[in-house]
Amino acid sequence: xxxxxxxxxxxxxxxxxxxxxxxxxxxxxxxxxxxxxxxxxxxxxxxxxxxxxxxxxxxxxxxxxxxxxxxxxxxxxxxxxxxxxxxxxxxxxxxxxxxxxxxxxxxxxxxxxxxxxxxxxxxxxxxxxxxxxxxxxxxxxxxxxxxxxxxxxxxxxxxxxxxxxxxxxxxxxxxxxxxxxxxxxxxxxxxxxxxxxxxxxxxxxxxxxxxxxxxxxxxxxxxxxxxxxxxxxxxxxxxxxxxxxxxxxxxxxxxxxxxxxxxxxxxxxxxxxxxxxxxxxxxxxxxxxxxxxxxxxxxxxxxxxxxxxxxxxxxxxxxxxxxxxxxxxxxxxxxxxxxxxxxxxxxxxxxxxxxxxxxxxxxxxxxxxxxxxxxxxxxxxxxxxxxxxxxxxxxxxxxxxxxxxxxxxxxxxxxxxxxxxxxxxxxxxxxxxxxxxxxxxxxxxxxxxxxx
Length: 452
Fold this sequence. Notes:
Blueprint: H1 2-19, H2 23-51, H3 53-73, H4 77-105, H5 111-131, H6 142-153, H7 155-159, H8 176-182, H9 184-210, H10 215-242, H11 245-266, H12 272-286, H13 289-298, H14 306-335, H15 339-361, H16 402-406, H17 418-429, H18 445-450
């Protein structure tokens, strides 16, 4: 799934240049993905509790696979915008379904490791997908077919699973005003990072094409930025555990801004190798800021508040990701490709100076009271905060109380629909009977029939 998603984002940027789409219009197309992603993050949990995980995953993966092919069939910028909204919606849902499965099998002892492995899969998939850009001509159909095949392959494990259906944990999010009162730096930082990251991932391939990089150089440029972020995420995070976290956010943001300014100079240089190395350093400093801002916000929260706050911050980040491509594409259209890194450097400089401002007016949380840094994937669904080991909103071996389900008390840690509740009741009461329709292993006719 991540190989396909990573390839598709870069492919569309390159193909938009080939098709001659205006840069500003391409920005609108690419930002549409994040519009769909935001909408999907809100809607998918509501669908899951009535339809079931296997069906939702199958439907969304099939739709994402089909929509990919439509890009090649209908190379119209306005239709591409619609297709990107659909794709973003689908991938938000696919993330949420995957994360809810992971949450269900994780324990208090293993969820930190599972989160780390999940994040690694996302990084590796996104970086690896870039190199698939070179296997065929982006002006043809083959790369779109490859994306479609990769996303379709993601269906196989879920379609053939014999695992019990996960309990759907409905995450709540704090309102923006509440979040801002708790941590202004957390909200502004996560939003600004969304603007920067959204601009980078949406327009990096377009920018690279405009400065005449070859396909292999475009692939390497984006992938080394991702790899740099993956490599420096934990060292920078661990550093923030031993100092005032705001100092680390300030230093990392200023270094990201300085590296962005350096890339502005290197883009016109003779050495492509130096330019690509600079991209890795830039990614290494700009990518960890998202997790640093989440950890900083958690420093001011009780453990049972972290899931709701993180979910709200993920949505805030997504709003920023919608805005970023729109702004940078307009600047690139008006001032040329060089505006790309000027904009990114400005965003991260703003984060750095806003952090400095917050440090001047509010005392820091004592280092020994800070929560432990947890690296979080940049692109994920709203279920991933539940895997944060620092959160205590994780209940194991709790007796099932069907009264909560009947009353639809969504503040209870496990919220199921009446259809799923009925199946669970049958399973508990007929534990020794081999009744297919009462099995929680069944995501097929039993659940469908009970929903009428």
